[in-house]
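Hi R.,

As promised on Friday, here is the backbone we talked about, encoded as structure tokens. Could you run it through your design pipeline when you get a chance and send me back a sequence?
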């Protein structure tokens, strides 16, 4: 029996014209085709916070991991035009900096949003949420570092937007019972992972990847028909496994 995702949540990363060897970038025109198609079908994009407060059938949740500047430049103007909102997951040690935490073939780096850009999105109705400080696999950290990542990122973002930070997105979608308990103890109300079946109350999401996802598969992901989700889940699982390179690169760098 295939379990239906509880909420219609899409996960995006970069929306950019800068080509790289990665499934996590989407060309702006591809993203635009997907969003206009969903709008045409009567769907409205919301932040996770908005959706949970008022989960209507024609709503879906848009999330952007890592808060790349390309999202501000290439996705936000379109979403504003469509009257869609989104949740953006921020890495607080990389505000306005390049993604040197990631495995980047050919040393093609992507910049993260700066404080002003995040403030603008917040004022426009987006949810600005936490992805930790350094994009580390939380389950591999010392318990004190876990609390540090969770607490300091929450406090910093909260001071920037002058609002509560309710949502935490686990880097690489990796979590266990201990880090979930730690996140809850730090005051997070909503915890977010990836496609894997939800455990410990963590909200699963459907990732949208380059090449393999078109507007129809995006529609399938938010309609959450169990049959479709089964195949989407397999596809996402395979592509998500490529993030292992980033995780290994981090470990390798750390051990040097
Ligand atoms: Zn991430």
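Update: got your reply. Pasting your designed sequence below so it's all in one thread:
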């Amino acid at each position: 029996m295939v379990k239906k995702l509880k909420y219609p949540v899409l996960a995006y990363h970069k929306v950019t014209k800068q080509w790289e060897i990665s499934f996590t970038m989407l060309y702006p025109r591809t993203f635009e085709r997907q969003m206009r198609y969903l709008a045409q079908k009567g769907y409205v994009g919301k932040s996770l916070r908005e959706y949970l407060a008022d989960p209507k059938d024609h709503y879906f949740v848009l999330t952007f991991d890592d808060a790349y500047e390309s999202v501000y430049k290439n996705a936000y103007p379109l979403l504003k035009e469509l009257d869609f909102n989104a949740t953006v997951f921020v890495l607080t040690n990389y505000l306005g900096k390049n993604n040197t935490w990631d495995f980047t073939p050919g040393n093609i780096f992507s910049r993260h949003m700066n404080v002003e850009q995040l403030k603008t999105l917040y004022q426009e109705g987006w949810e600005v949420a936490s992805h930790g400080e350094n994009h580390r696999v939380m389950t591999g950290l010392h318990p004190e570092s876990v609390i540090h990542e969770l607490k300091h990122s929450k406090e910093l973002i909260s001071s920037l937007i002058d609002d509560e930070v309710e949502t935490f997105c686990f880097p690489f979608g990796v979590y266990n019972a201990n880090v979930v308990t730690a996140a809850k103890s730090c005051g997070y109300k909503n915890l977010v992972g990836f496609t894997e079946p939800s455990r410990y109350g963590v909200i699963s999401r459907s990732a949208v990847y380059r090449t393999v996802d078109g507007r129809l598969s995006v529609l399938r992901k938010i309609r959450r028909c169990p049959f479709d989700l089964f195949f989407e889940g397999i596809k996402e699982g395979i592509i998500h496994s490529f993030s292992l390179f980033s995780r290994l690169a981090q470990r390798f760098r750390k051990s040097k």
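One thing I noticed while checking it: The first helix runs from residue 28 to 40.

Thanks again,
M.
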